[in-house]
UniProtKB/TrEMBL annotation:
GO CC, alphabetical: membrane
AB hydrolase-1 domain sequence ranges: 23-257
Protein name per UniProt: Pimeloyl-ACP methyl ester carboxylesterase
Taxon lineage: Bacteria, Bacillati, Actinomycetota, Actinomycetes, Propionibacteriales
Gene Ontology MF annotations: catalytic activity
Origin superkingdom: Bacteria
InterPro entries: AB_hydrolase_1, AB_hydrolase_fold, AB_hydrolase_sf
């Protein structure tokens, strides 16, 4: 599923698209990824749902302007704004990684209303961030200046580590591509540099307010965010169910497509 449509506001461009008929399902990607991680799932679900894909500002095919904020709070506001632009009434939201915090902030602080929320290996509560992620936070401008071939090698090793199994070369190429070149390389380090854990603490303090059905799915072999964090997250949400998927790391979309698809369908059918 390609992102053929554009939403323009304040000079910022957000790439998005929709397909299918039926209840609305909106996918949120994480970092350092893009809507590509959900593309095959959107295609599969479009027979029964109207599916929406989008790239957050600073990611994928959306604009990567230096002055545009890309922190959790800014992205949550953008997501709520997009939902209003699409005129969606209580969509089903599926979020991975960083997209978890974005979708949670949109509903907890920006009055976005969902039918249900499915959180897949999400960044949502502190602490968060792999050792590499923390290293980048300490050296954002230095890493901007890495020779392109070294940046490419570092990026590939980093993204490959998110999978419990090796990603295929074409899959890795697709995930790496938005972060290459004179625009992509600084944007990669910029989105990590703007990470602020206080936004996660605010989410954690308000999770008890959620009343919609929430499904928490976690890779049992996730090296980026340990399964214990998923169990803690589910325990803080009154309406949450929790499942760990064996043989899956942080990129469940690639590690365990069949179990993930089955669990997504279960969560989408909740009334």
């Amino acid at each position: 599923m390609e992102l053929a449509q554009r939403y323009e506001k304040h000079g910022r461009t957000i790439a998005w698209d929709r397909r299918g008929q039926g209840p609305a399902v909106v996918f949120c990607h994480g970092t350092p990824f893009s809507s590509r991680v959900w593309s095959a799932y959107a295609d599969a679900l479009s027979n029964d749902f109207t599916v929406y894909l989008w790239d957050m500002p600073g990611y994928g095919e959306s604009s990567k302007r230096v002055d545009d904020p890309v922190d959790f709070d800014a992205q949550g506001k953008v997501f709520a704004e997009l939902l209003a632009y699409w005129e969606l009434d209580r969509p089903r939201v599926i979020a991975h990684d960083y997209g978890g915090a974005v979708s949670l902030r949109a509903t907890l602080f920006e009055e976005a209303v969902y039918h249900s929320l499915t959180l897949v290996d999400t960044v949502a509560i502190p602490p968060a961030g792999s050792p590499f992620f923390q290293f980048v936070q300490d050296h954002p401008t230095t890493l901007d200046e890495l020779p392109e071939y070294i940046h490419d090698a570092v990026l590939r090793a980093y993204i490959q580590d998110a999978s419990h199994h090796d990603l295929r070369p074409d899959q890795l190429d697709e995930l790496v591509a938005p972060w290459l070149g004179p625009e992509g390389q600084p944007a990669f380090y910029r989105q990590i540099a703007q990470f602020d854990e206080r936004y996660l603490r605010e989410i954690e303090a308000n999770l008890h307010r959620l009343t919609i059905p929430v499904t928490v799915l976690w890779g049992a072999e996730d090296r980026w965010i340990p399964p214990a964090t998923g169990r803690k997250l589910a325990g803080l949400i009154p309406s949450a169910t929790h499942t760990e998927i064996p043989g899956s790391g942080h990129l469940m979309q690639y590690d365990a497509p069949a179990p993930l698809t089955a669990r997504l369908l279960e969560s989408l059918r909740v009334r």
